[in-house]
Amino acid sequence: MNKFGHLTTLPDGPFRFIALDVETAGKTNGGICQIGLCFVSETGAVQTYSVFIDPEEPFEPFNTELHGISADTVAGAGTFPTVYGALFDLLNAHSLVQHSTFDEKALTSACARYDLPMITSHWTNSVSVARHAWPELKGAGGHGLANLKKHLGLEFHHHDAGEDARAAATVVLKAEDILGTALSHLKINRQLAFQFEDRSED
Prior knowledge:
Blueprint: E1 17-24, E2 32-40, E3 46-52, H1 61-67, H2 80-92, E4 96-98, H3 102-114, E5 123-125, H4 126-133, H5 145-152, H6 161-179
Parallel strand pairs: 1-4, 4-5
Antiparallel strand pairs: 1-2, 2-3
Helix pairs in contact: 4-6, 5-6
């Protein structure tokens, strides 16, 4: 258990979608030091998971000041290949939500750094969803998580990956309420059981 009460073991799926957020240690996008996931069920119930990662690069003071994660925080944590390897099948089998496109870029960069395959999931940007649901915020603080937190009365600790993932998931769920319709592409993939067949001969 961590300080925000997030899960430290992965819950059982399948899920309607997973929101994902990362925090980074320093100057490179691929230096991920925390991954947060928010699992959203068919009924809209949410479960939040987070894990620290040894970024194998120095922490910049600016980053540590922002998210509170330092070399001491990640001492003994797994490296990106270990953590990502444990998450790969789960992430690859679900639609993913991110707030902005930074998280996808960071994962892509980390995969390139370690020569790992990037997940092929469909990504939804909850900033775009929020713009659609709350157009009045354009020019009135915008659609970043900090302003949405204020506007929607969200409760979360900004710049913790698990908390930000939960916030992104909540933004999508609240937007669907406002718009009166579910985002049709965010649905449980009924083909999950067949996702991992050997396709090498196709």
